[in-house]
Amino acid sequence: MTASTFLLGLFAAAIVIIPASVAGTAEQLISSAAEQRQGRVIDVQEGRGPESVVWVVQLSDLHFSVHNPERALDFINIIGPVLRMINPSLVLITGDLTDGKSKDLLTMKQDEIEWLEYKSAMEDVVKRSGLDKNIFYDLRGNHDSFGVPVVGGSFDFFSNYSINGQLKRTGRVNSVTLETAKYKHLFVGLDTTMPIGLRGPTNLFGHPTDELLAELDSQLSQWDSQPGKPVIKIPFGHFPLSFSALSQSQRSLEDIFLKHSVSAYLCGHLHTRFGKNLKRHHQVSDNIRTLQKLVQLNMHHLPSDSSINCSFGATQPNEFWEWEMGDWRRSRAMRIVAIDRGHVSYIDLDFKVGLRKTIVMPTFPLDSRFMLTSSSRRKYECQHMVPSSFETVRALVFSASPILSVVVRIYDSKPGTFDMVMETEMTKISGESSRAEFYAAPWNYRAFEDPSPDRYWLQIEAIDAMQRSTVSEMRAFSIDGITAQTSWTWKEFYVMGFQWSELYYPILWSIVSLILSTLLIPRALLIFSRKQYTYRYFIAGKGFVRGIPWVLLELCRLPVVWSGILGYVIYLIVCPWFLGQVFVHNEKKVYMTYMGWAVESFNQQGKHEYIGVPDVMVLVLPHLVFVVLPTIFVTGGFVAERSIYREHVLSLSGKKEDDDCSQKIRTSKWYGQRWIRKVLLVEQLTIWECMVISLFSCLSLS
């Protein structure tokens, strides 16, 4: 008998002998425990909507704050009515529910008032929307774990005030399945925040454990042994994969997602300040090298050249999309994700301008920018596996007023202008009891086959009873599974294209090697080389490259200064950087090195373990790059400028032989008025400013 079976037996026995009110609580606990193991199943048929399509809502990065009450107020006034109009099957809130920051941004810790505000706001939204509270799933973000020493402790307000906490969804992984007549849609939420929640700024990455990955693997495979309906798998979490660390056994979330061929991973965390195109295509390929796994230059992987197998039970292509969404904090963003006969699409909505009376969401054909390359091509070539999937243009229409007409228009951009080539009235195909109005229009899809994925463009217009016209965003589509290539901006590439957790140590040791080289190589030249790198040598060569060794050699001629800088670099490598109070209301301070925070292990009494890697990179790398390295060159510059000024004084006094070099030194205003020294002072002030910023980051931990 397993421990779980034994506990369930104890609960069942208790129900017989305890009062009815307590027995009801025990039944809820048993139901909650079973739901966490197997996942909840929701039948979305039952006269509630079109059987071929389901849709859910995603919200992220709410950042409710005592210093910005308008965030919660707008959330109540906007999201409540919008959810009533959309009537989704699920509402997914992917982290950073509260802000956890002081007004001056120096202190980062949990504030119970913010959590009470979140609980109250969610209760109001549930009431206004008319939705069942059980379809809401919220997750921790890094802000929700600032300074929380242990999950379930007195400072873990998420466990008390979140919807997941109130409904006893205590696991790190929770799943729910939306079932229709022909499909199962499996949604799996994962909490990868630190088990020991550090305070900011060194709490930035997701930290999946081997145990979490095993549970995620199990939840994603829960329907694999049951033949019949195809399963569409969509995990959701807070952290993008570029900001997710590896587990203890060097496994990643990407490994699990690719293994199960999930359709998309929904996440948040980055907000819209880095861009609105924070999407990334992941794919298994033998041609992808190790470096390409660490740095992905383009949003899309190259399409696979493997042949398509249309037999039933054939292996699905190992690929998925990662879709980061905007934040509620500043952007007032919300996302609707729809799955129409296996085709997954989404639209992002911006409520900064207020409520929307009507929302038009095309569900087929798909946006050619965000199709799964291999999967879309397989669905096109294997249409016998998805009957009638390609025969109609389809769209969901959500409206506060009755809809009078819906029209689809298709444009051809090949001539260089958008020429309309199709305009058709769409027909409502869902019943009166539907949760939304679902429209379709027949078309000859083969007429739009084209090797260019952005030749044909789709737009759908809906007119309501108030004669208000609402149009969908015009977007390119591709019938035959060819994906349109979209490039990142440099900021989008910076946050989505790098696997930062795996690049931290290579970048760190590269910078340290560069710093040591700038100190040790000139010293070796000074000791062993016969060539004299002086200012005259620099002037004669007229080259910047020759000037750098001269500046660094001048620094080496001051052994006290040179030794001090070298000693500081060695100290940063082998000693603690500083002490900090990383937990809320815990007077004990711990120290940080480049390897992370050394905290006492909860498993091995008296021993320490390092946590917060690679999160500490936000302090370590900027300090080395913007403080230590520039200090070496600026200090060398001060020493070199002193030598130049000495030459200038000697040339004016006539004690120096009057050659071309002396004439340049004597006549130059740069030397006489010491402009070089003034420029170096400005640079030194900039370095001090960087040090102050770093200091304030450290003060947030004290």
Automatic annotation (TrEMBL):
Residue ranges of domain Calcineurin-like phosphoesterase in the record: 56-272
Record Pfam families: Ig_TMM62, Metallophos, TMEM62_C
Stretches assigned to the TMEM62 C-terminal domain: 505-687
- What superkingdom heads the lineage? Eukaryota
User: Is the Transcription regulation keyword given for this protein?
Assistant: no
Extent of the signal sequence: 1-24
Where exactly are the transmembrane stretches of this chain? Answer: 503-526, 560-579, 616-640
Q: Name one GO molecular function term.
A: hydrolase activity
InterPro entries for this protein: Calcineurin-like_PHP, Ig_TMM62, Metallo-depent_PP-like, TMEM62_C
List UniProt keywords, sorted A-Z: Membrane, Signal, Transmembrane, Transmembrane helix
**Residue ranges of domain TMEM62 Ig-like in the record:** 356-482
Answer yes or no on keyword Membrane.
yes
Record's protein name = Calcineurin-like phosphoesterase domain-containing protein
Q: Which organism is it from?
A: Linum tenue
Lineage per the UniProt record: Eukaryota, Viridiplantae, Streptophyta, Embryophyta, Tracheophyta
